[in-house]
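Hi again,

Forgot to attach this to my earlier email, sorry! This is the prediction with cytidine-5'-monophosphate bound. I've pasted everything inline since the attachment limit keeps bouncing my files.
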Amino acid sequence: MQTLAGKKILLGISGGIAAYKCAELTRRLIERGAEVRIVMTQSAQEFITPLTMQAVSGNPVSDSLFDPAAEASMGHIELAKWADLVLLAPATADLIARIAAGMGNDLLSTLCLATDSPIAVAPAMNQQMYSNIATQENLATLARRSFHIWGPASGEQACGDVGPGRMLEPMDLVHRAEDFFQPADLSNIKIAITAGPTRESIDPVRYLTNHSSGKMGYAIAEAAAKRGAHVTLISGPVNLATPANVERVDTDSAEQMHQAAMDAATNHDIFISCAAVADFRPAEIATQKMKKKSGEDEMVLRLVKNPDIVASVAGLTEQRPFTVGFAAETQDVEQYARGKLSRKNLDLICANDVSQQGLGFNSDSNALHLYWPEGDKALPLASKHELGQQLISEIIDQFKAKQH
Ligand code: C5P
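Structure tokens for the complex follow:
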């Protein structure tokens, strides 16, 4: 998806080992529609060549304040005015210090003085250098001046140390850039999302559940909240952090999730049912832990049907939200998905073929096919993070089309 379409990003590279990741970073930014121009410090060129960066960015690389040819094509003041965002990655302790001090002793530091565009800094250095009070004070100075500080990550370092100071990975920086440019255009839309598995108790210590990780539902919640939507995330038991600016309602069983969904449904514009709800629950929950009985090699659990949450929401006759379901199928995907679309009275269904390796449950990526009464659209294999963004865009388009 062209999440950065038309955005002009000036990537300033300074001399840290993470500079080798800048070719990948540039490609991923361009892939999303950004135009990227590169400025390199002298020491950055010890780690990655200007030729590489020129080839991946499709633009000549600038590296000198005093290059008559470069100044004649796009001078440093022009370059400073051109950018929608200046991204310093990797930003070494030295570059951070020079910028905090307001120095202009090379092209990159001069550009930072001359631009009135926002500047994001991705620190990258040895953990001791990062923790040094001088670096910390310089970063605090930049933060106070409204620079965006992206990272660092923590972990193993090129020098063998372990700790904070690693540059964020290229895709993490791309996501920061996407978030930065994301318009908050859904601020008047309320979305309720169910996510994760349910747990159906058998006795005080045992339950029936499934392999749903909740990742897809959480990614959708995150994407919607980032566009300013008011998001209520009705979650089954999962091991995931609540995305920023999302109101989370924790539930356990399908009946609890059903109750929470019905409470939320009528005051939300859109309801997205991403949860893997258990179809059946034990007819009785034993009050004490069930014991093995000697001589018995079998046990029979009687199950009763759970309420169909999404069908209950879609069946509301008043204040019914635009209702979206999911369908995990292993064969005849379209036929089964369309069957559910009409049987459950949904406005849209997102089908995935879970027979394909690496897709669906518990995986970090997925591919979906959307069906609605008048059409369909394939969303090819992508990370759940990206798919969440695409899905929100498609759902909003269909929701708006239905309103008109
Ligand atoms: O019928 P099936 O379980 O395949 O339908 C999947 C869709 O129905 C999903 O959107 C799922 O969240 C929803 N569902 C539900 N309550 C159930 C069973 C499924 O909301 N008891």
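DSSP finds 14 helices and 19 strands in the chain. The domain at 190-288+299-403 is CATH 3.40.50.10300 (Rossmann fold).

That should be everything now.

G.
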